[in-house]
């Protein structure tokens, strides 16, 4: 790249700081600042010597001088402005330092794993669609643990009842006039009523008070989906369509994927498995965990096993000849799919499944269950399916002392509220368990809009699999991006969070540091507009910076899982338009102590300053240990998490002691 300093340069291309190093356009808005930076370090001939270039890379940027971009710069006898601009247009200048592959030879429980909750959903928890694209989406974004809720299949007549009830056709005859209007109105009301009947009382009362409940009442939705659908209209049942007659019976009765007891639409389990195969290792070959929540009869579970073995042939992890005494490493499981499914001890008979949630949910955590009956109850999971859970055997949590808690291959699943209760009352037990064994945490059932829990608190207590609703771009998903961007979905836990392993150095205590951070904002370009806006003339952006330090102290109170909101945050003044001269504004965070670098995050949000709620326009998030120093570009994602051309030039001064 060459740029003539005497004329307006063409667009630069700059690498992203996330999982993809896609090049993005950077226009001339930044040139005055970049020229000023160059001149501040140049000699009288407006050139850099090799030693001046090396001092900039090492001392100002605290950069790696072995990267291709740095090597090209440092290999020049003298450096001009064009050469400097080429370096600044490389990935070396991104706010997030490039990911250096972590040691992948530790046991599986020694890693944080990028995870999804109710992966099949495309929107809210009550009335959104389920489809295979949701799986493709999260897998291409680096997710390494996905969830599949499986229910018994139904025949084609029942499948068509959802579309007929919402589309206005019954038996091929379209309703019209007052009768149709009256019927539609009745259907909408009945669907909301049916949904409320299916929900627990406390959720139904909450639904009444939300705008989501009003939307369902206004728009109607799919037929309620439970273990079995409501029967089809009589005319459809008596006169099945020619299309349904031509379908092979195996397709009509295979298991399906959906969110039970809601209005969400289903998708075929076979289609989900095929979509997973196609994208499982498109981005990384690190192992993929498929978390099954099974609501199927034994017969349908046999179908599940057959479908998975067919769709994932050659990818399913093989069990060892004897019971394993430790978990394998991600490195040993490359290119493999691990099934997380309920553990069934040998000799336990199968029983028909009930209609409730999967046993491994851990929602109840009954004290009585910890005492338990001495007789083993029949399992709702057949042995053939349970055997697929080789290294991720789901066990219902009852007590930290239950025998299964010592199985190397067990995994507990806790809802966020239950986890936080243990965080308050039994945090040493919680933390010690998570040093050695796997734990999955998932959002509360009250989050009907698919909002997310606050993940640093759960990572800080050692939970490996913190499952999030990826269809929602909120604070939780932003922090998840900060943790896992570009990593392949596996991040080694910090010192003090891992077990003693004979082949590894002796365990070290948790390393804590004090942070002083100053960020100087220079200029921004191509800031995306909020989703609801179309005019840059009415756009008044400001940039808020937050330091999320909550995950650093696993012994501290957790404020109901919300984090210490507002403790470390600052913002710029309000500006105008999408291309902004920020004028060197500074935000300062002084002497924040007790931090674990790997569990601390710096988050930037760009919002539109307006009356009422300030809409989100763009954002970026970085883990503290990956926050580059010196002159950096913050690459902005839009409100949906999509890559944009937006960028902010800043100077980062970071001191850790």
TrEMBL record:
Gene3D superfamilies: C2 domain, Phosphatidylinositol (PI) phosphodiesterase. GO terms for biological process: lipid catabolic process; phosphatidylinositol-mediated signaling; release of sequestered calcium ion into cytosol. Keywords: Hydrolase, Lipid degradation, Lipid metabolism, Transducer. InterPro entries: C2_dom, C2_domain_sf, EF-hand_15, PI-PLC_fam, PLC-like_Pdiesterase_TIM-brl, PLipase_C_PInositol-sp_X_dom, PLipase_C_Pinositol-sp_Y. It catalyses: a 1,2-diacyl-sn-glycero-3-phospho-(1D-myo-inositol-4,5-bisphosphate) + H2O = 1D-myo-inositol 1,4,5-trisphosphate + a 1,2-diacyl-sn-glycerol + H(+). It is an enzyme of class 3 (hydrolase). Its EC number is 3.1.4.11. CDD domains: C2_PLC_like, PI-PLC1c_yeast. Residues 354-367 have a biased composition (Acidic residues). The production of the second messenger molecules diacylglycerol (DAG) and inositol 1,4,5-trisphosphate (IP3) is mediated by activated phosphatidylinositol-specific phospholipase C enzymes. Signal peptide: none annotated. This is Phosphoinositide phospholipase C. It comes from Ophiocordyceps sinensis. The keyword tRNA-binding does not apply. Residues 385-498 form the PI-PLC Y-box domain. Residues 495-638 form the C2 domain. GO terms for molecular function: phosphatidylinositol-4,5-bisphosphate phospholipase C activity. It holds the Pfam family EF-hand_15. Residues 154-191, 216-251, 345-376 are annotated as: Disordered. The keyword ATP-binding does not apply.
